Amino acid sequence: MSLLRIRCPLRDSPLRCEWALIGDGREPVPGEGPIAQLPRRAERVQLVVPADQVLITRARLPRTARRRSGSILAYAIEDETAGEPESNQVAWLGSAGDDDVLSVVDREGLKRWLDALDNAGLRAHEVHCETLLLPWATGEWSLAWNGRDGYVRTGEREGAATDCGDRALPPLSLRLLIQEAHARGAGPAKVALYTTAPDALPDIAAWQRELGIPLRPAGAWDWRTAPPEAGASLMQQRQRWLRLAGLLPRLRPAAWVAIAALVIHAVALVSDWLLVASERRELAQRMETRFRSAFPDAVAVVDPALQMRRKLAEARHAAGLADSGDFLPMIEKVAAGLKELPPRSLRTVSYENGRMTLELSANEEAAASRLAARLIQSGLSVERNAPASSAAPSPGGRSVILTVRSS
Question: For 222, which DSSP code?
Fold first, then answer.
């Protein structure tokens, strides 16, 4: 069975992409180009989302809420995502002990790519996280490293992107993950180190001293060469039943079986939808009840979560405390993220109504991407924009604009 694997950076426009065509027993055929020129005859289409654009987290869910995607799961981890639940595509990956493992991606970014691929005639998609494509063995973590940053797979369905490091020092986030795992009694015995770029292998002895556990150089690795069944799908769209219409004259008995199965599936789907709708109404009612108990003078309750956040901000201001959307808390987080940028790469900083705009030199594209990832990890919402074409050019040439908001 042939597999077309496509790398989809959700923050980028779906115009061009890297891809690999994988066949049974054959070496992958890599490629790069416009979406309109992707191979068309693959039996499976697999989307790979970069590791730093997928959050994999744990939560404890009611049994009835498992294996669902959408608002129910998004509201369950609202505190960890620190954003509007409806803006996230959340999927249940499985269980880890008593906890449930969930994946979170940007809903609008994923929809843009799926729509672009649908328009190009590729209609069956599996969505995978780059992190979970890494090889993994029990008792061992797997780290993909490009010489500056990377991502680590810590379990069958768990992993995370790392911050920056160098040849002598491993990323701080990796050290913290190992310490946290050892505190839970679930630390790895060793870490398998895979390189994703030439000359990316660090000083193994220095890293082992910093991490306190052995490292095993595991060779080069590329998402294109991962086995077709690697990882866990974050979402899957199945082929439409209409494709079976042409087989009905020749396979009439099988067609009747398929119709009966479809009817049963429809009944189950309606029942499931009614259950989800009931759970959502119950959750909305509980949120409204809590809001009214805290603010009995409220005239109308339209969006309890948003109104609660606004009331909290008002209460903090009334008490003389800063809110997360004020200038000082935001500039503190931004300043921490700017520490590793080269000198004079930041041109201007502006702030207005809870929104901070950073203008960076266009020569620091990679640094801007790392800064955006660090700010998102610190709880801020980051939008990357190109300068308006009508704007006067900056004295230093082209620039990259980051718009930062409190999540």
Answer: -
